Amino acid sequence: MKHILILISFISIISCKQDKVVITPQTLNSGFWRATLAVQDQEELPFVFEVNDDEIITIYNAEERIEVDEIEINGDSIRIQTPVFEGYFVGRFRESGNQITGSFIKPSLDRVVPFTMNYGVKERFVSSAEVLSENTASVNVDGSWETVFSPDNAKDRYIAKGTFKSDGDIVTGTFRTTTGDYRYLEGKLDGDELRLSTFDGAHAFLFVATVTDSTMQGQFYSGNHFKEAFTAIKNNDYELPDAKGLTYLKEGYDRFDFSFKDTSGRIVSLQDEEYKDKVVLVQIMGSWCPNCLEESIFYRDYITGNPNENLKVVGLAFEYAKTEATAVKSINRLTDRLQLPYPVLLAQYGEGADKKKAAEKLPMLNHVLSYPTTIYIDKKGAVRRIHTGYNGTATGEKHLEFKEEFEKFIAQLLAE
Question: What is the pTM of this model?
């Protein structure tokens, strides 16, 4: 009996040792990685990033470069925090550290998207052709495209202008709507199938279309929560409506005003002494919005490069965050990371993208059509212009046109 007890004890010790899993600490391999997000219809939304020797990530979208430096690794677990925005990746290393699987999470919106990251893959879209080095494009997508999203739904229908250029079978460009652009899109034309994607830390967009030399028909996917159809015809003379005529003061109002708290709790109003007799730009925006982020960088660079005590900028943030404290934290993260030289006030939280709710906070406007929207106010307090949306650098010539017009108009207002 004594020998049996000793044997049982010995087996138990061995079993415990065998059950104990030793997790080898992982590191993020330097070099290129290909990430895919799982969207609807069993589609995958890919993007490519590169890791340097200091474990800093650079995300590539056509000409755009996004640096990510908030990376935490604990054993075989990893957390990657996107810059400025609240979204983050959380996952585990697989395949001896050459693969990571997990979820991309946006807490305020309760959105969870499965992802896979594979090391050593540089190609964004893998061609179906056997010889990957050959040009697999069979049609010409270069030029401008007159586009309609949700063409069969009168309620959700909206127009856009697609502008694309190709280099072999690699395609870059963007869709520009009346309220902003769909960022830097990059993809591949494989036969008559066009695939474009972008991931900027907040937006995860995938466009899949069948293309001829003059038509385009496909689906637009945003993360794994939304999709809509779109159609387009090639039209190099097509232009969108003027962004300066879409939002305006309602009849009966001759002034724009606001009263919201800054992140320290102080009530700030356009009637405050610091804004009197000044040219003021009021930026309607959100810390979750990539177009707003790019516009904020533009304003920051303009202000620091052209200092003038008679020019003021103030942001009004409409936030997704469910609590005021979380919203304040998001705003502070934005202003700190971008080093913004102007205040951003908390206008709304919990229903940040609800434009009807936003319009209730600003009843003098006919509507809040887009984030961002900027109200230009002269030294006498009169609204001189309201610009809906923002033509970012991905829009190429349109951005340069906006920049030139902006600088001339600001100079005019300051000279009055």
Answer: 0.89
Buried b (16+ CB within 10 A) or exposed e, 248-258: bbeeeeeebeb
Q: How wide is the angle at C-alpha 175 spanned by C-alphas 173 and 180, nearest 5°?
A: 120
Residue range(s) defining the domain that contains residue 259: 243-415
* Tens place of pLDDT per residue across the chain (416 aa): 444 444 444 444 444 444 555 566 789 999 999 999 999 999 999 999 999 999 999 999 999 999 999 999 999 999 999 999 999 999 999 988 999 999 999 999 999 999 999 999 999 998 655 444 455 668 999 999 999 999 999 999 999 999 999 999 999 999 999 988 999 999 999 999 999 999 999 999 999 999 999 999 999 999 999 999 999 999 999 999 998 989 999 999 989 999 999 999 999 999 999 999 999 999 999 999 999 999 999 999 999 999 999 999 999 999 999 999 999 999 999 999 999 999 999 999 987 667 888 888 999 999 999 999 999 999 999 999 999 999 999 999 999 999 999 999 999 999 99
Specify whether 186 is located in the same domain as 294: no
d(CA 141, CA 157): 23
Q: Is residue 361 part of a domain?
A: yes
CB within 8 Å of 86: residues ≥ 6 apart:
106, 107, 108, 288, 321, 330
Those residues with Cβ within 8 angstroms of residue 156's Cβ, 6 or more apart along the chain or in another chain: 149, 150, 228
Q: Which of 184, 215, 234 is the last residue of a domain?
A: 234
297, HSE (Cβ side, Cα atoms, 13 Å)? 11
Strand partners for 187: 171, 196
Token duo for residue 381 = 């307090």
**Rounded Cα distance, 12 and 14, in Å:** 5
HEC assignment per residue over 260-280: EECCCCCEEECCCHHHCCCEE
> Do both 247 and 366 map to the same domain?
yes
Number of domains in the chain: 3
CA pseudo-torsion sign 398, 387, 376, 200: negative
- 156 and 294 in a single domain? The answer is no
Question: Which of 27, 45, 37 is CA-nearest to residue 119?
Answer: 27
Nearest to 260 by CA among 278, 283, 277, 244: 283
Strand-pair partners of 205:
198, 222
The reply to whether 396 falls in a domain is yes
- 186 belongs to a structural domain: yes
Residue 134 lies in a domain: no
